[in-house]
Specification:
about 250 residues; alpha+beta; six-stranded antiparallel sheet; 5 helices; 6 strands; about 45% helix; binds adenosine-5'-triphosphate
């Protein structure tokens, strides 16, 4: 799997649509390398930020901003601010690193994976996978299956190697979890735990309701029994009255 193309529009300093093409294999054995060069402040790191962002990065610190809308083009002398930021990452999946079956798509659809993230100034955001809206959690699982993701070694920023060497053992474990493909199971476990917690909440609410209703149950049962008895008595009375008035007549 390799990165083929990145499209950015309205993201940080990229007001207009920009397409960056990354060469894949130069020949059978050699993979191409792309360098982006430019003067200070020309937006080189913004490109790396866009890659992180589309992979689902949630930390504004990692994206060098304070609030989420900081990634939307905030205007320049030539152009007013925009209402939406969008980035699309085109990944070549011809090696089938992301198995398509789980996502109900044919292999053809999955020889290229297009991930898109959009953010509107009003706070709405969207994740799109090969043209269909999806959840961040699904994107995270997909990336974890491909053994890469937004958090760890896929995007290595300035000072990150040094940081990695200085991290604690538990922080370093995160990198290895992602590289070995354990991450997808951790994500699924977290989702399952969340669902369990949710079910437990529901159960507790149901128990509370039962607790509220239970005291009324005894008096209601009594009332129902009385009502049944009344029906029986009224039928018996009817019979007796028929008999009595019949005899009088
Ligand atoms: P350096 O070589 O100094 O690290 P760089 O080429 O990596 O610089 P970036 O840090 O990617 O440059 O880009 C910084 C530029 O992006 C700044 O000019 C900043 O004003 C601009 N920028 C960042 N966020 C936005 C935004 N939301 N809207 C418009 N411009 C933005």
């Amino acid at each position: 799997m390799h990165l083929e193309k990145l499209e950015i529009q309205g993201f940080k300093s990229f007001a207009n649509k920009n397409t960056l093409i990354f060469p894949g294999m130069l020949d059978k054995d050699r993979r191409g390398i792309t360098a982006i060069v430019g003067p200070n402040g020309s937006g080189k790191s913004n490109i790396a930020d866009a890659v992180r962002w589309v992979l689902g990065e949630q930390s504004m610190k990692m994206l060098r901003g304070k609030k989420s809308e900081d990634v939307i083009f905030s205007g320049s002398a030539q152009k007013g601010k925009l209402g939406m930021a969008e980035a699309s990452l085109y990944l070549n999946n011809k090696d089938g690193r992301v198995p398509p079956a789980e996502f109900g798509l044919s292999l053809d659809n999955y020889s290229q994976i297009v991930l898109t993230r959009r953010l509107y100034r009003d706070g709405d955001s969207e994740y799109i996978l090969n043209g269909s809206r999806t959840r961040l959690a699904d994107i995270q699982i997909l990336l974890a299956k491909a053994k890469f993701g937004q958090k760890t070694y896929s995007v290595i920023g300035q000072g990150m190697v040094e940081g990695f060497l200085n991290t604690s053992l538990s922080e370093r474990k995160e990198f290895f979890d992602e590289a070995t493909g354990v991450k997808q199971f951790q994500i699924k476990r977290d989702e399952a735990l969340n669902k369990l917690r949710h079910s437990l909440d529901n159960l507790q609410q149901a128990e509370l309701l039962v607790g509220e209703i239970k005291p009324h149950l005894a008096s209601l049962t009594k009332q129902v029994n009385r009502w049944r008895k009344r029906e029986e008595l009224s039928a018996a009375l009817n019979d007796l009255q028929l008999n009595y008035y019949g005899q009088l007549w």
